[in-house]
Amino acid sequence: MRERTIASHFARAALGGARKRGYDYSSLLQQLGISAELLDEPRARLAPEQFTRLIQNLWLALDDEYLGFGPAPSKPGSFAMMCHAVIHCRNLERALNRGLLFYSLFPEAPRLCLSREDEWVRLSLDDSQLWDPDHFLTECLLVIWHRFASWLIGQRIRLEQTTFSYPRPGHGAEYDLLFPCPQVFAANRSSLLFHSRYLHMPLLQDERTLKHFLERSPADLLSRPDDGDSLSSQLRRLLSRDNARWPDLETVAAHLHISPQTLRRHLREEGSSFQELKDQLRRDIAIYHLGRADLSLQQIAEQLGFSEPSAFHRAFKKWTGVTPGAYRAQEN
């Protein structure tokens, strides 16, 4: 179970446009099982499907796929129509150019452009005209175009660099999950850089797969993890496969054919640690089960390797700011 949870920051940020438009979203949050306590707690996390439903419902309520952050609304269905316009293109380059042309037909849509830099390609976003205090729409547009392009060719496009036209935000730690590559802040533009070889790849999707893709997209693209190539991501995948026993650092190091000291050093260079990765995964698994009625609190505690439910209770509150019982109560 590798589902990553979503920081409560993104739910608060997504609601910013609704607040600006005077939309009372309290009944929507109640319907989705998102409590005010959860939203107000900076450490709290949401299940991916919860976040997907929030975004989809906000689109409909505001009649705007830009959620109130763009210079003008984008009618729900615009993204789907763009997808239909590109799905029969011969390769990714044609698809991206046609998709960007589609949005350029709307004079007040955020401007995106594709440019060559030797063997690299840069997808740039002009976010200067956005009302986007938390950079939510900028993040969404960059993530969606990267993951949509990857879906079209059936493989993850490796990002070489991302740049942002603003200083590193308070929730910058989350960017390692959104953009698993070197990041440059306070740059002259917001952009994604990747190798030009991807542009020549054929599209592997068609009308049939597009129909399924559009049932939850692009909201699903925002909540789906991008595991990337980092050691942290490899470890998370490894621990996900073997969380019944929760292997220790020495066992994992042996599996990777490196020494425990080397493993610690590499994780430190990525700004992480083995315990932190294990706790993040245990937190996400706990949130997954707490949102369902499949396991009792004691069974969840045992699955996560806690000998006592009280230890699980303390750890979960430390991770998320709320108790397991309080989290389950607001979910049901």
TrEMBL record:
It comes from the Bacteria. Pfam families: Arabinose_bd, HTH_18. Keywords: DNA-binding, Transcription, Transcription regulation. Residues 233-330 form the HTH araC/xylS-type domain. PANTHER family: HTH-TYPE TRANSCRIPTIONAL REGULATOR GADX, HTH-TYPE TRANSCRIPTIONAL REGULATOR VQSM. This is AraC family transcriptional regulator. The lineage of its organism: Bacteria, Pseudomonadati, Pseudomonadota, Gammaproteobacteria, Pseudomonadales.
